[in-house]
TrEMBL record, chain A:
UniProt xrefs under Gene3D superfamilies: 1.10.1740.10, Winged helix-like DNA-binding domain superfamily/Winged helix DNA-binding domain
Residue stretches making up the RNA polymerase sigma factor 70 region 4 type domain: 133-184
Xref: NCBIfam families: sigma70-ECF
Keywords for the protein's UniProt record, in alphabetical order: Sigma factor, Transcription, Transcription regulation
Domain named RNA polymerase sigma-70 region: residues: 23-89
Protein name, entry field: RNA polymerase RpoE-like sigma-24 subunit
GO biological process, alphabetically ordered: DNA-templated transcription initiation
Pfam families: Sigma70_r2, Sigma70_r4_2
Molecular-function GO terms, alphabetical: DNA binding; sigma factor activity
CDD domains tied to this protein: Sigma70_r4
Length: 205, 214
């Protein structure tokens, strides 16, 4: 039975290095996935993931324990990613934020394009490397803060409550940012799939 | 927006709907609308597909990465200088009990069983005669005092006991200690000229072997 995060955190505070190793092993893949989704670059994502764990270790005494360990870990990860992007000067994607109020801008995406081609099980639909790259590209087109929410939701399956705590924003903002981020990604992926269908007929039913 | 004005109200709710984040009342309303509106049903399907696509796409990207050294590299950056040996032993012991309790318990049980078998065996060996009768002895040193006619032969048994033979060297020179290994109990037999009887026997003298010092 796996030891829960908070118990491990207590042990790390007591000087138990092995407990920290377990935490790293538990979250390394997901932290890396978030960093990769944010930064797109594999090496940068790897560096940021390691940096995030080092920072977590260093500031473990600042962790209050009133929220879960992973929300704190992801907050640190996302903040490092945003720092890296700002330092590079290119935030990737649009620099202006979407309007936080929910607007109905789904009209440009062809309705049903994704759903009809992929269903809800993309593994069955021969997901190709090319498509995985397209996903990265679509993510890069989403403003960084919206991207962070989308990634944390999809990778970690965070609840809106946890997202709100992790990113320190109201729940309503979580909802609207997710809506906009999804609309943007969906538009790019739908266009890609339609283009793909026109080219080779793959994915048509 | 396709025709239905109600869609304007429901489209923003589709994202929290697929995430299971709507209140029960909103959820019922959305489901009622989805039953009547093909466009919104399509939008909800799109959102689900996109969500799954993102997840699988990122998982695929992560699967390509080798995390073998990841933990080690992080640990190398957070580990302070090595604590003293005793502290390290203490920590690794306590960690063993913490994380491998079952393994530790079974190891200890095995060790206990082994001890129960081995210790009596070893004890029985100790029953073998000491000193003179021990099966392996070797000459540690042969040294004669200046002008003396006797030479002490110091033998050491397996258990560290020392036996000192004093042999008459009247007619034969003392043999080289390193070259000669008289069998236990029969050293004098090799030299007919010797008395055949040791002048002095000191079996099982508990002094450490010191190269024949007397």
């Amino acid at each position: 039975m796996a030891t829960d995060d908070l118990t491990l955190v207590k042990r790390v505070r007591g000087g138990d290095q092995r407990a920290f190793k377990l935490l790293v092993e538990r979250y390394q893949r997901k932290v890396y996935a978030v960093a990769l989704g944010m930064l797109k670059d594999k090496e940068e994502a790897m560096d940021v993931s390691q940096e995030a764990f080092v920072k977590v270790y260093k500031y473990l005494d600042h962790f209050k324990g009133d929220s879960s360990f992973y929300t704190w870990l992801y907050r640190i990860t996302v903040n490092i990613c945003i720092d890296v992007m700002r330092r590079k000067g290119a935030s990737g994607g649009e620099t202006e934020e979407f309007d936080e109020s929910v607007a109905n801008d789904l009209s440009e995406a062809r309705i049903g394009a994704l759903g009809s081609r992929l269903g809800t099980n993309p593994q069955k639909s021969a997901l190709r490397r090319e498509l995985a790259e397209k996903i990265q590209e679509a993510l890069a087109a989403v403003p960084e803060k919206h991207r962070a929410i989308l990634l944390l939701r999809e990778i970690e399956g965070m609840s809106y409550e946890d997202l709100s705590r992790t990113l320190d924003i109201p729940k309503g903002t979580v909802m609207s940012r997710l809506f906009h981020a999804r609309a943007k990604v969906q538009k790019i992926l739908s266009e890609y799939l339609e283009l793909d269908e026109a080219k080779s007929g793959v994915g048509s039913e | 927006m396709a025709g239905n004005p109600a869609c304007e109200r429901f489209v923003p709710l589709l994202s929290p709907y697929i995430d299971g984040e709507l209140s029960p009342a909103d959820r019922v309303n959305v489901e009622r609308h989805l039953g009547a509106c093909r466009d919104c049903a399509g939008r909800a399907a799109d959102l689900r597909a996109e969500s799954a696509l993102l997840r699988v796409g990122l998982e695929m990207a992560v699967d390509e990465v080798d995390f073998k050294d990841f933990t080690q590299r992080v640990m190398a950056r957070v580990t302070p200088e090595r604590p003293p040996l005793l502290e390290r032993l203490r920590i690794s012991l306590s960690e063993m009990f913490l994380y491998h309790r079952t393994a530790m318990v079974s190891s200890l049980a095995t060790a206990a069983v082994l001890a129960l078998v081995v210790i009596p065996l070893v004890m029985n060996q100790n029953d073998a005669p000491l000193g003179y009768g021990a099966d392996r002895m070797r000459v540690r040193a042969v040294r004669a005092s200046e002008g003396a006619k006797v030479a002490p032969v110091v033998l050491e048994s397996d258990d560290g006991n020392t036996i000192i033979w004093v042999v008459d060297q009247d007619t034969a020179p003392a043999h080289d200690g390193s070259a000669t290994e008289p069998k236990a109990g029969t050293p004098p037999d090799e030299h007919d000229e010797l008395d055949g009887e040791p002048l002095k026997k000191g079996p099982a003298k508990p002094q450490p072997p010191k190269g024949g010092e007397l």
